[in-house]
Amino acid sequence: MAKNKAQDDGSWSKLIRDIMVILLLVLGIHSCVAKPFYIPSDSMMPVLRNGDRLIVSKYPYGWSYASVSFHLAPKTEGRLFGKLPERGDIVVLEHPVTRIDYIKRVIGLPGDTIQLTNGELTINGKPVKREVQPLLAIPVDPNLPSMGSSIDRFITRGANGREMLELPIVRETLPGGVSFDTIDMGPGYTTDDYGPIKVPARHLFLMGDNRDGSADSRVDTSQKGLGGPVPFDVIAGRAEIISFSTDGTAIWYNPLSWFNALRSGRAGTDLRPERSSTAK
Fold first, then answer.
1. What DSSP letter does each residue of 195-223 carry, written as one string?
2. 179: which strand partners?
3. Which terminus of the chain has fewer CB atoms gathered within 10 Å of its CB, N or C?
4. Catalytic residue from among 31, 41, 43, 67
5. Catalytic residue among 41, 58, 67, 104
6. Residues in a beta bridge with 212
7. pLDDT tens track for 186-235
8. 198 catalytically annotated
9. Measured between alpha carbons, how far is 66 from 87 in angstroms, rounded to an integer?
10. Distance CA 56, CA 39 (A)
11. pTM for the full model?
12. What is the DSSP letter of 75?
């Protein structure tokens, strides 16, 4: 009987060791290589939608305390093998104060002077190229728009009776030739006028693509914004690809609903922006 008990104790201790090894491997992969990320809002529309699931790579910019998943690392200065993002990259970061995960686009690099006037972006004294695009029509679903979203005023009803979002799109081209679509809901928003402000060394200026509905570097931390340029050390990784996207209709106890909730055409979307080698 004593021998069987010793064997049982050994089995339990081995199981616990195996579980610990698996957890450490998962934490290591999440922190050093890549992790999944869920989009919970409309601040990065039209490129990203509430309900998108992404793959975020951890190594392109080196590693800092923010790279460690689940916010387990204490806040410290410095970055191992640090490499600055490029303008236009979509990055995941820890909020400098609350440590909540945010996702935004890199607009300003260290030394850049950033200014917005009537919603038009200027970098280093040069207006960013803006091209008005046709309205973007997106079906309304339980995940879109988010509750309390500023884009809900663009809901219309299509000929088939289905509710649609018809969004005003402006395509921007940053210095260096990176292009991407933004939502510009027109004048009258507090974030339309900002700066000028010079981005300090080892800092980045971040904005959401939904320019009138994003708590980003233009917004004070008291309003859940980033409160200006953020330290490079808060960057956790780079958004790479959409793995899949759901419309919010899935029921956890009904596996069939999981498949029915998948949005078509979203999986596999590359999140690296278009870059023109001829632009300056």
1. EEEEPPTTEEEEE-SBTTS--STTS-GGG
2. 173, 274
3. N
4. 43
5. 104
6. none
7. 988 999 999 999 999 999 999 999 999 999 999 999 999 999 999 999 99
8. no
9. 20
10. 12
11. 0.92
12. P
